[in-house]
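Let us practice reading a record.
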Amino acid sequence: MKPSRDSLGLACVQGLARGAARLVLVDAGMGGRKIKAGVLLGAGLALARRLKQECPEPRVGIVLPPGAGGTIANLGCVLSGKTPVNLNFTSGRIAAESAVRQAGLKTVITAKAMEEKVGEHFPRTERKLDLAGLLKEEKKAAVFWSLLAVALPGSWLAALAGVSREGGDREAGLLFTSGSTGEPKGVVLTHQNILSNLEQIQGVLGDSNIGSLLGCLPLFHSFGFTVTLWWPLTGGPRVVTYPSPLDPHALGEVISGHGVELVVTTPTFLRALMRRAGKEKLGGLRMVVTGAEKLPGSLREEFAEKIGVKVYEGYGMTEASPVVSVNVPGAERPGSVGKPVAGMEVRTVDETSRQVLPKGEPGILEFRGPNIFPGYLGRRDLSEKVLQDGWYHSADYGRLDGDGFLFIEGRRARFSKIGGEMVPHGVVEEELAKWCRKLGHGGEGGLEVMVTAVEDEKKGESLVVLHAVDLDPAETEKALREAELPNLWIPRKFKRVEKIPLLASGKLDLAAAKKMAQS
């Protein structure tokens, strides 16, 4: 794959100006408001001019959910040559202030309704810009640029608007990791990173002729940022947005009501969607792709049986912009996360020595490609730890099979070392989930069990089961033994909780779970 030197802003102008009359966004959270490509581009260019005038700093914060507002705010930033920093408004005051400080943010674009919703945890910056007010003031300019979008080629329009053509290794996006295991880290993504990943996504999904996808993942989430924000704006399918992935009943209505064909989500959210929306609302889907956490085989089978739609597992991380691999029709292997996208190199190394292992041998996964980030913001120490000769040293165990399919064995953060042996939390959770189903749990959706660990003086660590349903420890231990789990893998500690802790991205909140177990 030839590295792109273009800018993300130029790619958006060309993608939106190419067929300016086509429908590109449906804001289901705002009553199904339909926005054409030329109108969206006009609003973005008008906002870009305003940002150039009022914000001399290189980065601008954004606190908005998926929707027309969040899309225009991000588009305006890249068209003005500024880096959009979508802040995690669910992470709490400490994490938000850390992100603001690290990014050097002075301005945040938001809406009054968001300020009220976030309340005291709203990130503090020198100035807050109300997006609705700005767009109202710039209405004439937006109409002017929308008309030009219909009349002029994208390259001419970009030149006239002063949109930079050069991108390459310059910063185009800044995402902060969810902080599931500590203070958030700023992941710098370049224009080349994002555009390369968009080309890789188009390469694996383009032949599917997907006409529309659901955009409900937060814009501060890497999949929400690249897949459901920039892909539609650079020529991909139209996006149907909804402000939250946490309302499966409403999402079912959105999917059926607006003819959504592709859903990209997490297994946790998909499970709730299946149980609350059902085949009546989801039967029209053409494809479902899950990521962020392992897709249980039981969920894949149950969804196909009840809904009649196949679920394809993918894999990625923020540091890869984010897509690394995905199963697709005609090139899939259940249990794997698919083949790596074009231009991605994958190898495994020994965890201790970092010696490269023979192909097919499991180890810590390392990746190299045009979509791999250049480093963490202001953290040279962390960057040098994970980046060597262009290879990104991940936190995941895995292997490539003989046909090139990638298998993820688990995350280092989700292993415990007990009696000198590495115990995978995910494998124990799968057996616990099977036991829960035998007991008849799992009616309305949500996650029933999670495995975490606490320190143990004798064995190093002890597994703790957090369960949001009633479980008898003795009976559960017996069931795990009958499933032939090794003795060291069988938890002896159980704790009843109101609900399993999740981050806004749908991932397990590892830090919160550990605190629960310790208490």
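A brief commentary: The mean pLDDT is 91.
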